[in-house]
Fold this sequence. Notes:
Distance between the termini of chain A: 46 Å
Helix content of chain A: over 70%
Radius of gyration of chain A: 20 Å
Protein name (chains A, B): TetR family transcriptional regulator
Strand content of chain A: under 5%
CATH class of the largest domain in chain A: Mainly Alpha
InterPro entries (chains A, B): Homeodomain-like_sf, HTH_TetR
Keywords (chains A, B): DNA-binding
Oligomer: homodimer
GO molecular function, one term (chains A, B): DNA binding
Low-confidence stretches of chain A: none
Largest sheet of chain A: none
CATH architecture of the largest domain in chain A: Orthogonal Bundle
Number of domains of chain A: 2
Structural class of chain A: mainly alpha
Amino acid sequence: MTSLDLKMRREPRQQRTLAIIQKIEQATLALLKEGGIGLLNTNAIAERCDIDIKSLYRFFPNKEAIVYRLAEQWLEEIRQREQAIYQSDLGLVEIWDALDDMIDGIEQQFSGYGALWQAMDVIPALHGLEQAHETLQIDNMVVLLRKHGCCWPQKDITELARYLYRTWDVVKQGSIEQGEARGLMWRAHKKWQHRLLLSAVKCRDSAEFEQGLAD
Amino acid sequence: MTSLDLKMRREPRQQRTLAIIQKIEQATLALLKEGGIGLLNTNAIAERCDIDIKSLYRFFPNKEAIVYRLAEQWLEEIRQREQAIYQSDLGLVEIWDALDDMIDGIEQQFSGYGALWQAMDVIPALHGLEQAHETLQIDNMVVLLRKHGCCWPQKDITELARYLYRTWDVVKQGSIEQGEARGLMWRAHKKWQHRLLLSAVKCRDSAEFEQGLAD
């Protein structure tokens, strides 16, 4: 699977070609949403957007290449919107909440986030994409915490950022799965996130931080 | 992948046969640990335990069937030890900590937990196994919370249990990955778990619970 060809056969240039590719992408996203990656195949995609399977293969070598392109575009969209938020003058917690709002907004716009994210978990060829995204997210969080005064050693601050990113991811996915992006446990988790962020910039080191979390 | 044959070709009865199968399983676990599921293949497994590939195929149709059997045994071991803990007379937090100790103990004994768990994420045919395990774990937690007095509606208590299970999983995996099963963020997360458990049995409903978590 690692050597799977994920490149588009050729980049679209003409308006008409672009339109076909967008139809393929939309159909893929819709099918992913309906039945997950397990039921996805190129025949079903071609059928759904009413094009000949040969046209599909003119652009994409396999279904994974379509999902790869979708995931790339979607992650790029997240990163661009994120940059705008990180560069703003908002406070720590306000930036955190703005990131949350942004992600929920993207979810509504892209509609299929959950299915796409799951596909990335299941298709080994997409793991690289996901890992690169995680690394960037963790780096961003470390920079944010440093900017707001966290002076922990790199190992500890990275561990906190990794925790924030991974639990954010799993709790948000679970909430979306339950049909409520901001359900009970997402709201509870958010309070916990706020507490961790504020403690991280207030405490000189992780020992003081840990002490302060006494149950 | 969903129709992949995961059954052993025949159940071992003789002592000598059992020994071969154990060698195959140990080799698979070791290879998983070294290179992950991506590099695992039946030839490498046969070579590692110094048996003919034909002998391997006499018992297992493919590598997934070996991983499936390993995962089944491992989850069964967890469930048996868990039952003993759940049936004890310990308090809520003490039971929680005993479960944690038990899992860390299994990890040391089975040595390869992380790799096996990741394999379950990546091999679609193993998802059913993982989902059944998650459902059981969540049910167990709901029963535990009820036993200790939580009287929330089923939807809310289940959401809490799902949160506890999934974040437990992702934080523990991350800690093991970093080479410290009880690293900084695991310890922080555990304090948060304790707080959630105690609030859940103390608060009449999830609204009071949420109020009490005010940051």
